[in-house]
Design brief:
heterodimer, A: alpha+beta, Aldehyde Oxidoreductase, domain 4, 3 domains, seven-stranded mixed β-sheet, five-stranded mixed β-sheet, about 25% strand, B: alpha+beta, Alpha-D-Glucose-1,6-Bisphosphate, Chain A, domain 4, seven-stranded antiparallel β-sheet, 3 helices
Chain lengths: ~800, ~150
């Protein structure tokens, strides 16, 4: 079941992104652009040890320096604030902005120095003396899971934050009945999104109004709630300014510890306080690393390559504190079988603490590692049967007529046409030619391979993983809101109620409201409310804003239209059903001369109350709070739940070569097919997808927070943490398909994570295809040149011996 | 991160003279790169202050140097431990002196363990930097020997 594509006035048209204008001319309003009077600056003292008891923090030398305002250590802070919330019921895993009593990873913030300038604060931070007593530590996830591993939080007793096994369907029966089984292990390495703008926050306390003002580079759900909770303030004393532009986030700009730290300092010192992380603060102590996940997988299938059942164990090394990171094992449950008809699944999700930097949400919230593993399973099945990898995917795909499709873990996929997009891409790419090119490259002496990935992007972000993994949590709404006001002069202002992380929400809202009211989007002002003026909303995460904010804006606009038509019907003395709306003018269906223009209706609503229907509120303001489609239920007793409502699909075809002497991989061809239902703004979706692929190339080949066995983080700057640049990102060919969602107002689905969901899987698939002639497989990401080069050299040496 | 240091140096001097100089805090202070001060705190125990630049970071370190297992004039063990804005460091080395063809040969071998800022930012070039610093030490030390001979 899929809704048919519709014709639109503004939706899907290739219009300018409204935000671009200010960014292109350098007039964004980023947190570093905001200057408050008498503002002070923070620098941080960090732990050089992976685990150590903090014996003493001595800031006396620092305080002697002129211009230094304060030195704060963890004990004082812990006594004055509430610990930051844990996602899981693990009350002994306490987390504060500064280490309290014990340092738990290299880079953890031990003390904060406040001074008149950041440079001065940094100089003073060097004078803070910290005495440590090193403690045993553990850095590897599998080691941390062992019973005798040193617990990162001794009071918690072990490193295990979550260890839960889900069984959906008759897994053992399906395994017993399947003639073939394979198993494999692989690891998704620790990388993240490292936006160019690090995290930044300013806090200012107004003691006479009792308001705490906060400006931040933020993408954190329930941000003001968390600040109020940690600061022990009523929530109506916290005003977060949500109109601060964010210089990239892709999940990680959660900054709650940074925020609570500066809020405490601002209130304590009664001065505006700012913390802008430098790259080192950010990389080692910004608590913004991504998932690091070991997978152990067993697959049961038949001789034709049909997969019947899957057992997956995912062990995530979340670092020293919990935060929301264990939930990144929960979200993929909503697409645990990918686009395939796998009948039963056993999924063991394990989250462990270790003496590494803390994890935060990264683009797709754990789905990309899971997709990497599902796609590897498809390749393994094909290789085991000596079948074409694409053919095995086709045989397992959910077919277009089977939607809505219920997967074993309780989520229903809304719509899709997977074979349709695969065929389009195969035709565009000319797969025979791609294989011929691979073989030509091989004949030249290179290693060469073709990779595939057909992956889902769950979208419309809900938080159903919270009650699923933590039964004490009964959160069943993740709403977003929009308010539309037509002022007395007839112009339109639409207000959204969350921050932006650069996804173009102003364009989204203007386009949707314009579509509903038949008014050019450029004429609509879009603003962001601060949190003392806010409707219930969450955050632009989980690939949700086209669905949720777009939905809220659409419904609010329709309510406005309805109110204006009701006023017109009353004034014209006709029934509502006899009127039509045409670009804001309301006229009679039968008698077009009987009409009220937009301005006529505005005048009635704002001034001429005597012409209004009885009991109607004056003015033209409407609003809508949008509940996530298909959401709202608690998980069943057998652990099934509708996770996200909508499912976008992407299909990658990658041709790569590897120089066998040095191990350097090179892209020869990159084609992506993408289907996110109705596209609201093609430029935004294209940008998201291209950026997502670049991000995926980083995760697959370059980016890694590498630790040595002493717990030292070796990649803290862009000298060592390698990002893909224009040299590493190839030309990407995109093929589009539109399979509308029946659940959303225009048939749109999410696209905030597209590209990233399949790129690492496709690249890994291509590299393993390239290495097959050598009889080796790569089982971990990132596939750095050194790793590839060493593996190829070892395989060749072995070959030479035989 | 772990670091291995080792090598051999030759000096035109007699073994007693070299031994004496290696054990002279004033000489060491002049030869150790970035050494701001070296204060005796006990028998063969010194407090040392360093000001160093490694890769893109510079900073200070404070630490202790201890000499032990001395067999004059041929063998000595040096242990170093320090911390500061550059991070933490620990080292343990043994040097041996012997006479050979009218020269003194100093053979040294040790391991280090570095943490914090330097490990994180300078790790790719840390081995090179360590070699460079050791080289600087011996250049200065050779100068001291020549000065003493003159």
């Amino acid at each position: 079941m899929s809704a048919a594509p519709r014709k639109f006035r503004y939706i899907s048209s290739d219009r300018r992104v409204l935000e671009d204008r200010r960014f292109v001319v350098g007039k964004g309003n980023f947190v570093a652009d905001i200057v408050r009077p008498n503002m002070k600056h923070v620098a941080l003292v960090f732990s050089p040890h992976p685990a150590a008891r903090i014996v003493k923090v001595d800031g006396s030398e620092a305080l002697k320096m002129p211009g230094v305002q304060y030195v704060l250590a963890g004990d004082e802070l812990a006594a004055a604030i509430q610990p930051m919330p844990n996602g899981m019921p693990t009350p002994e895993v306490k987390r504060y902005p500064l280490a309290v009593g014990q340092a738990r990873y290299v880079g953890e913030w031990i003390a904060a120095v406040v001074a008149d300038t950041r440079a001065l604060a940094e100089d003073a931070a060097e004078k803070v003396k910290v005495e440590y007593e090193p403690l045993p530590f553990v850095v590897d996830g599998k080691e941390a899971f062992k019973k005798d591993a040193p617990p990162v939080h001794p009071a918690h007793g072990s490193n295990i934050l979550l260890d839960k096994t889900f069984v959906w369907g008759d897994v053992e029966g399906d395994f017993a009945a399947s003639p073939r089984k394979i198993s494999f292990s692989q690891k998704w390495g620790r990388s993240s999104t490292v936006p160019i703008e690090t995290f930044g926050v300013i806090a200012e306390w107004d003691a006479w109004r009792e308001v705490l003002d906060v400006w931040a580079s933020i993408q954190m759900p329930k941000y003001a709630d968390q600040i109020a909770g940690s600061m022990r303030l009523p929530m109506n004393a916290v005003r977060v300014h949500q109109d601060v532009d964010v210089g990239g986030s892709y999940g990680v700009k959660r900054g709650i510890k940074q925020t609570v730290l500066v809020c405490y300092l601002a209130k304590k010192l009664n001065m505006p306080v700012r913390l802008i992380e430098d790259r080192l603060d950010n990389m080692r102590g910004g608590d913004a690393h991504g998932p690091e996940r070991n997978f152990d997988v067993e697959i049961a299938f038949d001789d034709s390559g049909i997969i019947r059942s899957m057992k997956m164990e995912a062990l995530d090394n979340v670092g020293a504190y919990a935060g929301r990171s264990p939930f990144q094992l929960g979200k993929p449950i909503g697409a645990i079988v990918g686009p395939y008809k796998i009948k039963s699944v056993q999924y063991r999700a394990i989250a462990v603490t270790s003496n590494k930097t803390v994890q935060e949400a990264v683009r797709a919230f754990g789905q990309s590692p899971t997709n990497y593993t599902i796609e590897r399973a498809l390749d393994e099945v094909a290789w085991a049967l000596n079948l074409d990898r694409l053919e095995v995917r086709r045989r397992n795909f959910i077919q277009p007529h089977e939607f809505p499709y219920l997967i074993p873990s309780g989520t229903t996929y809304d719509s899709g046409d997977y074979p349709g997009l695969v065929n389009k891409v195969a035709k565009h790419a000319d797969l025979d030619a791609v294989y011929a090119e691979r073989d030509r490259l091989r004949a030249e002496g290179l290693l060469a391979g073709v990779g595939f990935a057909s992956c889902l992007e769950p979208s419309g972000g809900n938080s159903a993983f919270e009650p699923l993994l933590n039964r004490q949590n009964k959160t069943t709404t993740w709403m977003d809101s929009c308010r539309i006001a037509v002022d007395a002069l007839g112009t339109i202002t639409a207000t959204m109620h969350t921050t932006s992380a650069g996804q173009g929400h102003e364009t989204l809202v203007a386009t949707v409201v314009g579509e509903a009211l038949e008014i050019a989007p450029e004429k609509i002002r879009v603003s962001r409310a601060h949190t003392l003026d806010v409707m219930p909303s969450n955050s632009p995460v989980g690939s949700r804003m086209a669905i949720m904010l777009g939905g809220a804006a659409f419904h609010a606009a329709n309510k406005l239209k309805h109110k204006m038509m009701t006023i017109a019907a009353h004034d014209l003395g006709v029934s509502l059903d006899d009127l039509v709306w045409n670009e804001g003018t309301v006229s009679g269906k039968k008698n077009p001369d009987q009409k009220l223009t937009w301005n006529d209706i505005v005048l009635i609503a704002h001034r001429h109350y005597y012409r209004m229907p009885e009991d109607m509120e004056p003015g033209l303001t409407t609003q809508h709070v949008m509940q996530v489609p298909n959401g709202g239920k608690l998980p069943t007793d057998d652990d099934r739940i509708q996770m996200y409502p909508c499912f976008s699909f992407e299909f990658h075809v990658v041709l790569m070569s590897i120089d066998p002497d040095i191990g350097k991989p090179e892209f020869r061809r990159y084609v992506i097919g993408h289907d996110c239902g109705t596209v609201i703004n093609p430029k935004i979706v294209h940008g998201m997808t291209m950026g997502g692929i670049a991000h995926g190339i980083g995760a697959a080949l370059l980016e890694e927070f590498a630790y040595d066995d002493q717990g030292q983080l070796l990649t803290q700057s862009f000298m060592d943490y390698l990002l893909p640049s224009a040299h590493e990102v190839p030309k990407i060919e995109a093929v589009h398909q539109v399979t509308p969602s029946p659940l959303t107002v225009f048939g749109q689905k999410g696209s905030g994570e597209s590209g990233y969901l399949g790129a690492p899987a496709a690249i890994s698939s291509a590299i393993n295809d390239a290495l097959r002639p050598l009889g080796i497989k790569m089982n971990s990401l990132p596939l750095k040149i050194t790793k590839l080069g060493d593996a190829i050299a070892a395989a060749r040496a072995k070959e030479a011996k035989q | 991160m772990k670091l291995d240091i080792g090598g051999e140096e030759r000096f035109d001097a007699n073994i007693e003279r070299v031994w004496e100089m290696v054990n002279d805090p004033a000489v060491l202070q002049r030869c150790i790169p970035g050494c701001k001060s070296m204060t005796e705190t006990g028998s063969d125990q010194y407090k040392i202050e360093l000001n160093l630049k490694v890769a893109s970071v510079g900073g200070t370190m404070e630490g202790m140097i201890g000499l032990s297992d001395k067999t004059p004039p041929s063998r000595c063990r040096i242990q170093v431990e320090g911390s500061g804005t550059l991070g933490t460091g620990k080292g343990d080395a043994v040097f041996e002196l012997r006479e050979e063809n009218g020269q003194v040969v100093m053979k040294y071998e040790g391991t280090g363990d570095v943490g914090g800022l330097v490990a994180g930012v300078g790790q790719r070039i840390l081995k090179g930097v360590a070699k460079h610093l050791v080289g600087k030490f011996f250049t200065a030390f050779r100068g001291e020997i020549q000065k003493a001979a003159a």
